[in-house]
Write a structure and sequence with these properties.
Length: 324
């Protein structure tokens, strides 16, 4: 394959589980493949139905592309230097923040015929709640959501098929959420649910396009992986989840839908905090998936069980969403 011929092999952390050393040289930056496939899928869907592109759908996809570009630079530096260290953490975070700020301002613009913008300056769970917040706090909140979600998916990556397989149920949930919001949109029906979301059906199309692209990628990324997504893919996936949550006004619901990513991230936070405060480690290694590796669980066992946890989190989140 092209990435292997070009020598774009994955460097492996020397302090990671020793079983990962056998993966050295596996082609990386595969996330670029499903990012492009998602864009093609979205474009083909609109061409086939002759529906115009929407501001919400395009902005979420651009957020995915922007964060994927940050990850691509990081991956390329790792491959070029043949080291597991790419962009400095501050530079990577700065790139994420800049892209998130641009996204935050853009989703507050571009009203449609009903004066609905892709997002508004509110906090949301199943829909907006509480009074509107000022633009600056909203931008900060969007930065937290985008950077937090992107890095959570990035931390979950590291085992063959783990991040892509765990993301797919969340994307499927957003397909269902977008369709439900479209059917109960106050601008087109008299439903008592009164969802006021701009372009909910197109957001479902975005989620479906990325879901389909992830499915194709997982075919080659499943254990034993023949290609890795790299930071290109993990940051892009985190970006599209954050964008969908913001534009469907389910920001806090994402914490439940993406409960697996939250758990993995918290394991890293707990490990670092405990070591700095007490000099002791809570886990044998963080993030959480590596703790179970060192305990002796096989990679496939960890991946499948983490997928199941992701599905359970999605089931809980959808149950809350539909029962409201």
């Amino acid at each position: 394959m092209l990435l292997r011929r070009k020598g774009y092999g994955q460097p492996i952390r020397v302090d990671g589980p020793q079983s990962h050393q056998t993966k050295r040289g596996t082609p990386t930056m595969g996330g670029a493949v499903f990012v492009v496939a998602s864009l093609i899928g979205y474009a083909v869907a609109h061409a086939a139905t002759d529906d115009p592109l929407t501001a919400s759908g395009v902005l979420v996809l651009l957020l995915m592309v922007g964060l994927g570009a940050v990850g691509f630079i990081d991956d390329y530096m790792k491959v070029f230097r043949q080291t597991s260290v790419g962009l400095r953490s501050r530079a990577k975070l700065a790139g994420q923040i800049i892209i998130a700020i641009v996204f935050a301002f853009e989703v507050l613009r571009r009203p449609d015929g009903f004066d609905l913008t892709p997002a508004d300056a509110h906090l949301s769970f199943l829909r907006d709640f509480g009074p509107a917040i000022a633009i600056v706090p909203f931008v900060v909140w969007v930065v937290i959501i985008v950077a937090g979600t992107a890095n959570a998916v990035n931390l979950t990556d590291g085992l063959d098929g783990l991040a892509s397989g765990a993301t797919m149920p969340v994307l499927a949930a957003y397909v269902l959420i977008g369709v439900w919001q479209e059917r109960n949109d106050v601008t087109v029906s008299l439903s008592p649910l009164h969802y006021q979301i701009r372009d909910p059906l197109d957001l479902a199309v975005v989620a479906a396009a990325v879901l389909g692209a992830c499915s194709g990628f997982l075919w080659w990324n499943a254990p034993p992986a023949r290609i890795f997504m790299g930071d290109t893919g993990s940051l892009a996936l985190g970006g599209v989840l954050a964008g969908l949550a913001i534009c469907t006004k389910t920001q806090l619901l994402l914490v439940i839908l993406g409960g697996l990513f939250v758990s993995v991230t918290m394991s890293d936070v707990i490990q670092i905090g405990s070591f700095k405060l007490t000099g002791r480690r809570v886990f044998k290694m963080a993030p959480l998936q590596h703790h179970f590796e060192i305990l002796g669980w096989s990679e496939t066992t960890i991946v499948i069980r983490f997928w199941l946890v992701s599905c359970l989190c999605v089931a809980l989140g959808l149950a809350i969403f539909y029962s409201y």
